Amino acid sequence: xxxxxxxxxxxxxxxxxxxxxxxxxxxxxxxxxxxxxxxxxxxxxxxxxxxxxxxxxxxxxxxxxxxxxxxxxxxxxxxxxxxxxxxxxxxxxxxxxxxxxxxxxxxxxxxxxxxxxxxxxxxxxxxxxxxxxxxxxxxxxxxxxxxxxxxxxxxxxxxxxxxxxxxxxxxxxxxxxxxxxxxxxxxxxxxxxxxxxxxxxxxxxxxxxxxxxxxxxxxxxxxxxxxxxxxxxxxxxxxxxxxxxxxxxxxxxxxxxxxxxxxxxxxxxxxxxxxxxxxxxxxxxxxxxxxxxxxxxxxxxxxxxxxxxxxxxxxxxxxxxxxxxxxxxxxxxxxxxxxxxxxxxxxxxxxxxxxxxxxxxxxxxxxxxxxxxxxxxxxxxxxxxxxxxxxxxxxxxxxxxxxxxxxxxxxxxxxxxxxxxxxxxxxxxxxxxxxxxxxxxxxxxxxxxxxx
Length: 452
Ligand code: ADP
Ligand code: MG
What we know:
Layout: H1 3-16, H2 20-27, E1 31-36, E2 39-43, H3 47-68, E3 74-78, H4 83-93, H5 100-104, H6 132-143, E4 152-156, H7 162-176, E5 182-186, H8 187-199, H9 203-211, E6 215-219, H10 228-243, E7 247-252, H11 264-271, E8 274-278, H12 283-297, H13 303-312, H14 317-334, H15 340-347, H16 360-370, H17 375-379, H18 385-402, H19 406-412, H20 418-434, H21 436-451
Parallel strand pairs: 2-3, 4-7, 4-8, 5-6, 6-7
Antiparallel strand pairs: 1-2
């Protein structure tokens, strides 16, 4: 079982014993970051979730994990920060911490020299109207690097195939031109390379090594924003390669002009080549992608199920894949291909329904439940601190989300004066700006309100 499958299997079990609201609140955007010697590290989206999972769910998770894999003895929860920070911290803790990319695809061997993942190919990249242009440019470059579009700059939102496409170019040039030196590198790696070689007085060597590359692929270049020294070194490497007609391929989550604090001369370099964006996949392409992926993963789902997924997950191909993985985990665990009904149950937390109208009652109920209080306590006159604060949160959400008038909100809470509601709203609005944890807390509550 891969990490991904193990986590999906654990989630599937938890889901059957947890209310949908709790499940959605605490398990959305979680994944296994690392599995090592009986220890699993789970990535959670924020500190609030971390605490909650540690205190309320750890036993259950550990039990299930252990039943699926006897070796598992310990579970840790971690909030990842920016990739770079996380990496720094990891390398402090242990030198053997694998790379992010390796973590993600440990079942595939990343090539040591090119740093490419052999999984990302043109052959399994589905082309549709939304990515036709970048695909065509990528394909042309793989036939003839360094001559047509230089640099190639591909941008688009998260999970839409940027990394896949630029690595496909790399894998193809390695195959077509075995004598050329192709190298893929993430911006984070590039940045840390510059930083450490400056520290070790080996920046010239670093630059020289990069100048020998024939096809240089740098992913997520937006991370160079604000890194002046790195930008400068990159500029020199870029120029050296460009002048020798070496191919440069870049990806970013936004176009060059939207990358803040990017030096002007770099920006104009980026804009001097071919810029192509990847949009959102249309329905047909989503279906096609699901078919390709389910074939790759060896699961035979009915068309109904595939249609259900493609009609509901529209903006992120990685999420399409996540949905498939969840169904695969179910199949492995139960030895049964999930039908449409089961798929709907398994996926309801990934797939959010249409925007819902919520009532004040629902908000009050959810806030009360969240803080383990009775609804009537929240509404009554108690001035106990444990109650006043949740009440203020409820008032705040009523105002902020539904825009109810202050007198109305006051009335909802046992006929309180409108100034109490105003005070609550202003207090929480202010505190949220200063206190990140409170901000997360309120978001979680809102999430619960809207997720059931
Ligand atoms: P990005 O780098 O834009 O965040 P990725 O390249 O990592 O996105 O893609 C996310 C996942 O979706 C990967 O597993 C990738 O293989 C898959 N994917 C993206 N686009 C396509 C596509 N057009 N055809 C097949 N798979 C795709
Ligand atoms: Mg990417």
